[in-house]
Write a structure and sequence with these properties.
Distance between the termini: 62 Å
Number of helices: 11
CATH topology of the largest domain: Rossmann fold
Shape: globular
Mean pLDDT: 87
Strand content: 25-35%
Order of helices and strands: HHEHHHHEHEHEEHEEEHEEH
CATH class of the largest domain: Alpha Beta
Low-confidence stretches: none
CATH architecture of the largest domain: 3-Layer(aba) Sandwich
Structural class: alpha/beta
Bound molecules: S-adenosylmethionine
CATH superfamily of the largest domain: Vaccinia Virus protein VP39
Largest sheet: 10 strands, mixed
Oligomer: single chain
């Protein structure tokens, strides 16, 4: 069975057009039953994960899943949610962009949102952990004759971002994949890479009406994620040099988007 799966993934599936791959993923998600373990205790989660896979560094379960993904698009999950995200970006983020803007898209997946704003800005540096998705993004940009996006495989945990470089920043869905000890490190790095007054658009899966982070693991497809509360998100960003400009629920059950502004020097001292 393992051999057949490998041949399917490495020899057959890779040759299919992206639209067919996306359709197959959608069908697969619908028919495979999901067996989700969830807890509000990080220690319990790590213990659970260590029983499942002793070799893997437990706090990296989400990273391991994403690293293997070949193609991912919010469109697969929900058309309406994708349109809501686009509307939020167009309404609350795009007005802050200009044709001089240098933008970073950290965790760009297949580049859909970089492509969306490419004609409105000067340059985009777009990074993702998954090499295959970066390759999909490069091909999409090539087909669309977009040449102001540099797509590169990189890990947000270890990437060095140039200080004071970006006029605007997109971080859509990254923090849901990142375990607690590394969150502040990433937010500080993003903050330092942005110019004073620069805008950050953020999207993540949030817990509405709950008070604790939820750690989840789906044993059917090995997906795992960290869902935090709205208050957690606010305090992470407000305590690390940002102020809140806009926010909205974009998917009815739990996906939220925010626009934050990097405080200017005189505001940071206050
Ligand atoms: C929920 S998806 C969001 C993708 C896209 N930004 C969007 O909103 O459609 C999360 C993305 O984060 C990427 N990712 C997860 N951990 C990462 C890391 N350590 N460094 C860079 N990217 C990472 C995944 O590969 C995936 O593309």
């Amino acid at each position: 069975m393992k051999k057949i799966k490998k041949i399917w993934k490495t020899k057959i599936r890779v040759l299919l057009p992206n639209s067919v791959k996306r359709l197959l993923t959608k069908i697969g998600n619908r028919i495979s039953p999901s067996d989700i373990y969830s807890t509000t205790s990080r220690d319990e989660f790590l213990l659970h994960m260590s029983k499942i896979n002793k070799k893997q560094e437990n706090s990296n379960a989400a990273q391991a899943w994403w690293r293997k993904q070949e193609d991912w698009n919010p469109y697969i999950i929900h058309k309406e949610y994708y349109n809501n995200m686009k509307n939020f970006i167009n309404m609350f983020f795009v007005p802050h962009l200009s044709n001089d803007s240098v933008v970073c898209d950290l965790a760009c997946a297949c580049g859909d949102f970089s492509v969306l704003i490419a004609d409105k800005v000067k340059q985009i540096d777009a990074f993702d952990l998954a090499e295959s998705m970066i390759n999909v993004a490069i091909n999409t940009a090539k087909k669309k004759k977009i040449n102001n996006i540099v797509f590169k495989q990189a890990d947000a945990l270890s990437i060095d971002l140039e200080t004071n470089k970006y006029d605007a920043f997109m971080m859509l869905g990254l923090l849901t994949c990142i375990d607690d000890p590394y969150i502040i490190e990433i937010v500080k790095k993003v903050h330092d890479s942005m110019k004073d007054g620069a805008k950050l658009v953020l999207k993540d899966g949030l817990l509405i009406n709950e008070v604790n982070t939820k750690y989840i693991y789906n044993s059917t497809n090995e997906y795992s994620a960290y869902y935090r509360t709205y208050d957690d998100y606010l305090s992470i960003f407000l305590n690390n040099g940002f102020s809140l400009l806009s926010h909205s629920l974009v998917e009815s059950s739990h996906i939220y988007m925010f626009v934050f502004e990097k405080k200017r020097k005189h505001e940071r001292i206050l």
